């Protein structure tokens, strides 16, 4: 049975009881509107820990003033039912007054230079907001493991750097992207897409597939192949297409050899879609 905790004190009591039994605790941080991608995180959390805490909190700190905070999908009843089925032990669902200090002075974790590129260039301050709330959740819950999805590749990279550079005592577990049958990455924002947008959105994973197929011809060929796949789709506006070294998140040039990460972000109608894929440049 999934226990719901809405206060910091309540979730800490659950975790203290688990630790008192010698249990290993995993935290799966989410913003709710749960789907198969989140359930894969919960499933992995159950494999690596004895007690799984899932947080649901639509974090206002990571939304820009013109972004979709107000309309971000929220359905705590549906999330609770899904978590029950998935075997999560604790749902931590605080409201903003509980998690964000009233009268706070705006203290933030600074994501640094990699927080300002790609997603961070399009969404200024986004990663400061993400890291601030993730660090706070880690302090509040105190898990041994934190489970994140590779779908948000830059987020995962920055959370990993934060854990390493601030010596946060938690292990990071990363789970591969869960996709729809046609390849579209599962995302809570897919709910915004109408049937036409849904068809156009297929260009995003298709661009990554095209890049992967061109990997033996180098970075420039990969970028050209991905751009070609996106160019065919009227209505899909590219925000960025980049190939980075996964160890540094810095762009790689045409002579690069080894493991690389291809990242794409595009807008379909009003909906932003991001996706990524690892490739090997031999
Ligand atoms: O990936 C998300 O859903 C959010 O960015 C996170 C990690 C829950 C922080 O608000």
Structural class: alpha/beta
What CATH first level of the largest domain would be assigned? Alpha Beta
The small-molecule ligands in this entry are: pantoate
Unreliable spans: none
What distance lies between the first and last C-alpha atoms, to the nearest angstrom? 49 Å
Tell me the CATH superfamily of the largest domain. Answer: HUPs
- CATH topological fold name of the largest domain: Rossmann fold
Considering DSSP H and I runs of 4 or more, what fraction of the residues is helical? 25-40%
Q: Return the domain count.
A: 2
Mean pLDDT comes to 96
Oligomer status? single chain
Residue fraction in strands: 15-25%
Q: Please give the order of strands in the largest beta sheet.
A: 1-4-3-2-5-6
Binding site for beta-alanine: 62
Family: Belongs to the pantothenate synthetase family.
Enzyme class: ligase
Catalytic activity: (R)-pantoate + beta-alanine + ATP = (R)-pantothenate + AMP + diphosphate + H(+)
Question: What's the short story on this structure?
Answer:
This protein is α/β, with parallel strands linked by helices. 37% of the residues lie in helices and 21% in strands. It is globular.
Give an account of the 3D structure.
It holds the Pfam family Pantoate_ligase. It is found in: Cytoplasm. This protein has 282 residues and is of the alpha/beta class. 37% of the residues lie in helices and 21% in strands. The chain contains ten helices and nine strands. β3 (51-56), α3 (76-86) and β4 (90-92) form a beta-alpha-beta unit. The longest helix has 16 residues, at 126-141. It starts with a strand and ends with a strand. 39% of the residues are buried. Pantoate is lined by residues 29-31, 59, 62, 130, 133-134, 152, 155. Pantoate (PAF) binds at residues 29-31, 59, 62, 130, 133-134, 152, 155.
């Amino acid at each position: 049975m999934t226990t719901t905790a809405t206060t910091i004190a309540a979730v800490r009591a659950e975790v203290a009881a688990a630790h008192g039994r010698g249990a290993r605790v995993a935290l799966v941080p989410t913003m709710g509107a749960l789907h198969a991608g989140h359930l894969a995180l919960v499933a992995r959390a159950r494999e690596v820990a004895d007690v799984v805490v899932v947080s649901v909190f639509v974090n206002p700190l990571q939304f820009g003033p013109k972004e979709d905070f107000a309309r971000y999908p929220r359905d705590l009843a549906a999330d609770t039912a899904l978590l029950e089925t998935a075997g999560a032990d604790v749902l931590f669902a605080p409201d903003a007054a509980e998690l964000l200090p009233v009268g706070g002075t705006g203290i933030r974790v600074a994501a640094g230079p990699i927080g300002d590129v790609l997603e961070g260039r399009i969404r200024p301050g986004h990663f400061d907001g993400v890291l601030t709330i993730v660090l706070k959740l880690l302090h509040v819950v105190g898990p041994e493991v934190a489970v994140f999805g590779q779908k948000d590749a830059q987020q995962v990279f920055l959370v990993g750097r934060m854990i390493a550079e601030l010596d946060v005592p938690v292990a990071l577990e990363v789970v591969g992207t869960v996709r729809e049958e046609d390849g579209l990455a599962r995302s809570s924002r897919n709910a915004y897409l109408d049937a036409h947008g849904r068809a156009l959105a297929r260009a995003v994973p298709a661009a990554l597939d095209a890049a992967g197929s061109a990997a033996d011809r180098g970075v420039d060929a990969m970028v050209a192949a991905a751009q070609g796949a996106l160019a065919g789709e009227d209505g899909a506006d590219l925000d960025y297409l980049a190939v980075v070294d996964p160890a540094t998140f810095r762009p790689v040039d045409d002579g690069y050899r080894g493991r690389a990460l291809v990242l794409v972000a595009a807008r379909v109608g009003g909906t932003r879609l991001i996706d990524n894929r690892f490739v090997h440049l031999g």
